[in-house]
Amino acid sequence: MSSEDPKKADKEVQAMDQENKDEILQHFSTFKDYLGDQVRKGEKLNLSEKGLAQGAKRVSDYLNKHEEPRNREEKVLHELWQETENDKEKDTFARLLVRLAQQTND
């Protein structure tokens, strides 16, 4: 979500070294802060709400497939993401994640 192309969000997460990823995912508040920073960067690049949500969706897909939840909050998010039945529900979930991240920026 830190570039103009939200498709690059999952590549950015993949490229992150494991130690940095561990640090971000260890505590939910750190994860929210990280997500908030990424949303803020996207907003500065004038990404639309839809673009921000697409980035959040890609990151969520990546985390769901490649990372184990490391705390209760991430476990809930993981389980909710798995229960989404179609792209429309995933889009809604991703928009909610963006809103959550925006609140950390206030």
UniProtKB/TrEMBL annotation:
InterPro entries the UniProt entry points to: DUF3243, YmfJ/YflH_sf
Superkingdom, taxonomy of origin: Bacteria
Protein name: DUF3243 domain-containing protein
Organism: Marinococcus halophilus
